[in-house]
Specification:
Layout: H1 2-7, H2 16-31, E1 36-41, H3 45-58, E2 62-68, H4 76-87, E3 92-96, H5 98-104, H6 111-137, E4 140-144, H7 149-155, E5 181-183, H8 191-200, H9 205-208, H10 228-248, E6 256-270, E7 273-286, E8 294-295, H11 300-313, E9 317-322
Helix pairs in contact: 2-3, 2-8, 3-8, 10-11
Length: about 325
């Protein structure tokens, strides 16, 4: 700080809106006056900020697409359409490809294989949508994605294959024949910086502070095979946990919270009978940059309320656990 300000004479007048203005100018130069961009959006803070930026840059030549891969959170597609199309004024079309994704995931249990299948299919769907847009409005050469800096770091191996932490759907598992050129306005930013940028763009706080949701969706939060039935079970449990965090005032204090459905069953007692059903685990972490994270010390009374509701309201779960692992060595997602 002393060298930059006192010696080099650097001015301390940079604000996040400057980043937005720089991107808007650069993307207009890159896309040109007639080019079209197709947007990879999910409704999370990353894709929302990226979509609003692109919409400000080229307006109606930005065509946002939400792909329902069958592994979204409960009522997610409906809420995303309202948030981005109705509230933010973005041209958004939802593609229901849930059956296509779930069919490809049949019998797959390896998490890396799930990521690559979903990443590849995700891009295939976007290429098909780009072809549709070309027929309707003209040539489309660019794909918008909300890749963040931690996504890039965790997906690049510096010391050989063993150093790669995991493949992100935005930066790994993409087909070599992909026809669309990537535009990634958030690639050099951390999560806290993306939220700051979102507020600078005038995006509402509810959207800006929404917890991250992975591109592969609930598929990587279902350990073992992904089926429509298991997705439904996890959707219900996840919705209850998020609701309890909001009601107890802990949601904004947590960096990321979700439920994982384990490939384990346990014996339980419901009424006068015994059950043999699924085990689920709640994951809540404190973090700012998502490169490191500590498990969140959730009060026992909140855990109690979560457990009681999930086990009594979600058919198929009879035991709820809480993850007390930090990153590193554990990752935030399972």
């Amino acid at each position: 700080m002393n060298f930059c300000v006192a010696i080099a004479g650097a001015k301390q007048d940079w604000v996040m809106s400057d980043y937005a203005n720089d991107f808007i100018k650069s993307v207009r130069d890159k896309v040109g006056p007639t080019g079209n961009v197709i947007g990879a959006v999910s409704g999370g803070v990353d894709s929302t900020v990226a979509a609003v930026l692109m919409n400000k840059a080229i307006g109606h030549r930005f065509h946002a697409i939400l792909v329902d891969n069958g592994c979204l959170r409960k009522d997610e597609a409906t809420m995303v359409l309202k948030r981005l199309r109705d509230d933010c004024g973005i041209d958004l079309h939802c593609v229901d490809a849930s059956e296509r994704f779930l069919n490809l995931l049949k019998g797959v249990t390896d998490p890396e294989q799930k990521r690559k299948i979903i990443g590849g299919t995700f891009i295939d769907v976007f290429q098909e949508e780009a072809d549709r847009i070309e027929r309707d409005v003209g040539k489309c050469e660019f794909l918008l994605q909300g890749t963040l800096y931690p996504d890039v770091i965790e997906s690049i191996s510096y010391k050989g294959p063993s150093a790669t932490i995991k493949t992100h759907h935005n930066v790994g598992g993409l087909p070599a024949t992909m026809k669309l050129k990537l535009i990634e306005p958030l690639r050099e930013l951390f999560k806290d910086e993306v939220r700051e940028l979102g507020l600078a763009l005038g995006i509402d706080e509810m959207s800006v502070w929404r917890h991250p949701f992975p591109g592969p969706g609930l598929a990587i939060r279902i350990l073992g095979e992904v089926t429509a039935e298991r997705v439904k079970i996890l959707q219900e449990a996840d919705a209850i946990v998020i609701d309890e965090l909001w009601k107890s005032g802990h949601y904004r204090k947590i960096g990321q919270a979700f439920v994982v459905l384990l490939p384990v069953k346990s014996v339980g007692v419901m009424g006068d009978g015994r059950t043999y059903e699924n085990v689920a685990c709640v994951r809540c972490v404190e973090t700012t940059d998502y490169m490191t994270a500590d498990f969140y010390h959730l009060p026992y009374e909140v855990m109690d309320s979560m457990s009681s509701r999930v086990i009594n309201e979600v058919r198929g779960i009879n035991r709820l656990c809480y993850d007390i692992s930090s990153k590193p060595p554990a990752t935030i997602e399972w």
